[in-house]
Amino acid sequence: MSTLRVPKEFGVHRQEKVVVVPLKKVFEGVDKLSIVRKIFGKKTSEIVNSLTVELHSRRGYMGVSQDDGRIFLSQPYLKDGPDHYLYLDIIHELVHVKQQRDGKDLFDEDYDYVDRPTEIEAYKLAAEEARRIGMNDKEILEYLDIEWMSASALKKLVKNISLELQTVFPKSKPNFSGWYQTK
After folding, report:
1. 18 near 55, Cβ under 8 Å?
2. 2 lies in a domain?
3. Edge-to-edge strand order for the sheet containing 71-74?
4. Is residue 160 part of a domain?
5. In the predicted model, is pLDDT for residue 3 greater than 50?
6. Residue 70: DSSP 8-state
7. Residue 24 belongs to what domain range?
8. Best label site of 75, 117, 120, 142, fewest CB within 10 Å?
């Protein structure tokens, strides 16, 4: 093996700044929301008080750990994401927390993402809540339109969550300028 010499001016920072905080420090009043009480029932306060959010500097959105139900949240998304997206996403992720606590496999690879029962349940509740807070069809589609999801997958997701649209679904993927695509 040859001897390699990395220039002395070069350095590697191997520790990404990760901050873990209580859920309620990031999402104040989340335990008081009726939609969250619908998810967790009588144990809402206990569960919400036990949840943590791991803030990381990578671009992205939110996710849940299959191991411990911790919520992952991108700091750029927290900083610049629209409040209604963050609201709907935390609802979506709290459904996953409930599923994880119930022993469900959040990442069951026997299913495509849009066919996964855990995703259908989470998106369905988020879409219902989107309607309740006044989002129209276009706004809900824009919210559901994740940049890595194909047009056919988006259509399938809309069908799977039984989202009834009053407008005709576009023949090709909508060209929404969602938060992620414009930042």
Report:
1. yes
2. no
3. 19-22, 52-56, 71-74, 62-64
4. yes
5. yes
6. P
7. 19-182
8. 117
Q: Name the token pair of 23.
A: 């859920």
- Look at 176 and 32; give whichever has higher pLDDT: 32
Which tens digit of pLDDT belongs to each residue from 65-91?
Answer: 999 999 999 999 999 999 999 999 999
Q: Is 9 part of a structural domain of the chain?
A: no
Decide if 125 is inside a domain. Answer: yes
Largest CA distance in the chain: 66
Residue 1 confidence (pLDDT) above 50: yes
Instruction: Tell me how far apart the alpha carbons of residues 95 and 118 are, in angstroms, rounded to a whole number.
Output: 8
From residue 73, how far is each of 27, 65, 138, 148, 163 by CA, in Å?
12, 11, 25, 18, 26
CB distance 96 to 122 below 8 Å: yes
- Residue positions counted in the chain: 183
Q: CB within 8 A of 142, min separation 6: which ones?
A: 174, 176, 178
pLDDT at 58 over 90: no
- DSSP designation for 134: T
Q: How many domains does the chain have?
A: 1
Pairs from 34-41 (Cβ < 8 Å, separation ≥ 24): 35/91, 35/125, 35/129, 35/132, 36/91, 36/94, 38/125, 39/91, 39/94, 39/95, 39/98, 39/125, 40/94, 40/98
CA-closest candidate to residue 101, choices 45, 23, 55, 39: 39
